[in-house]
Write a structure and sequence with these properties.
By secondary structure, the protein is mainly α. Helix content is 59%, strand content 7%. It is built from four helices and four strands. A hairpin with a 5-residue loop joins strand 3 and strand 4. The longest helix is centred in the middle third of the chain and has 23 residues. The radius of gyration is 22 Å and the shape is elongated. Keywords: Membrane, Transmembrane, Transmembrane helix.
């Protein structure tokens, strides 16, 4: 595995990181006062999601990996695909941390189902 710092690849890396910054990926998710999640665990997960995104951005932009001695094969396409998957996973993880869960599954609980059946009997 080697790094190739050509001007185009550095520009691509900068564009990816700047777009992540403009999306708000580097800002800590604000939790409401009555949220059930622990702020320290959310901050740790936020940091891990940023590292996942940055590793994906590096994999997409500057990594080359050649295998073989005589017939050398470049695995760059594999690194691009894995990097894109890492960045998408990171963005979805950050989006999940930012959106509060207010329902907590009460619509699907058995008590709510029984209560709705008592109020509206099936005839």
């Amino acid at each position: 595995m080697e790094f190739s710092f050509s001007p185009f690849r550095l520009l691509l890396l900068a564009a990816i990181v700047i777009s992540f910054w403009l999306w708000g990926g580097f800002s800590v998710p604000n939790l409401p006062e009555d949220d059930y999640r622990d702020p320290s665990k959310v901050a740790r997960a936020w940091g891990q999601a940023i590292l996942l995104f940055l590793a994906g951005a590096v994999a997409v932009s500057v990594i080359d990996h050649y295998v073989g001695n005589l017939d050398r094969t470049n695995l760059r396409l594999l690194y691009i695909l894995v990097g894109i998957i890492m960045m998408i996973g990171s963005v979805l993880w950050l989006k999940g941390m930012r959106s509060p869960i207010t329902d907590l599954g009460q619509r699907h609980s058995s008590a709510a189902l029984l209560q709705s059946l008592h109020q509206n009997p099936i005839t």
